[in-house]
């Protein structure tokens, strides 16, 4: 299975807090994202593509207070878990997971299943001109203990194709012993570590 880093996920108690965090910590304002009706969340995006990490972005995500929750499943990235909600409220926004793109979501999930890993089931989603298939577990659990990402298969368009350059680039990424990423920002280098 060939996986490429697609995006880093920064969770926030509210989207406004996530935007303020991005402006304060990274020195830039994230671009508009949108609403995920499927999960009752909304986001903002930041292009962090670099030569070593093409078509890569940072997603700031929060529960959308104006949207109904998902039906029959928990929200992705453990956003419904009380421990993560408490961490986001008390410590502020932070890196909570990563997403990897694959050419065939079905084949990738089958390979993981053969290795005893429940990566979830393929679910179709869309927002505006973007469409994708994503692997979701009904419990919404991140595979962080296994050091594994959430898997995504994009349609024809990718968010980074239209996101403007912002002066932030991903320099390095590691997911072996916890999740960490090193970014070049307008103010210097910054290291993000897994929040919870």
UniProtKB/TrEMBL annotation:
Organism: Roseateles violae
Protein name: VOC family protein
Domain Glyoxalase-like: 5-175
InterPro entries (UniProt xref): Glyas_Bleomycin-R_OHBP_Dase, Glyoxalase-like_dom
The organism's taxonomic lineage, starting at the top: Bacteria, Pseudomonadati, Pseudomonadota, Betaproteobacteria, Burkholderiales
Database matches in Pfam families: Glyoxalase_3 (PF13468)
């Amino acid at each position: 299975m060939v996986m490429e880093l697609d995006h880093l996920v920064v969770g926030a108690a509210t989207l406004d807090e996530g935007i303020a965090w991005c402006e304060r910590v990274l020195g830039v304002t994230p671009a508009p994202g949108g609403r995920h009706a499927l999960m009752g969340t909304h986001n903002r995006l930041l292009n962090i593509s670099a030569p070593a990490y093409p078509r890569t972005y940072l997603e700031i995500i929060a529960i959308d207070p104006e949207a109904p929750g998902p039906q029959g499943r928990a929200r992705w990235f453990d956003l419904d878990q009380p421990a993560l909600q408490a961490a986001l409220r008390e410590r502020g926004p932070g890196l909570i997971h990563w997403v990897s793109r694959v050419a065939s979501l079905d084949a990738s999930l089958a390979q993981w299943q053969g290795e005893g890993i429940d990566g979830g089931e393929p679910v179709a989603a869309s927002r505006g001109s973007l469409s994708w298939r994503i692997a979701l577990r009904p419990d919404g659990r991140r595979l962080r203990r296994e050091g594994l990402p959430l898997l995504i298969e994009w349609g024809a368009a990718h968010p980074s194709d239209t996101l403007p350059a912002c002066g932030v680039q991903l320099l390095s990424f590691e997911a072996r012993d916890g999740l960490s990423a090193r970014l070049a920002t307008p103010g210097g280098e910054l290291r993000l570590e897994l929040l919870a």
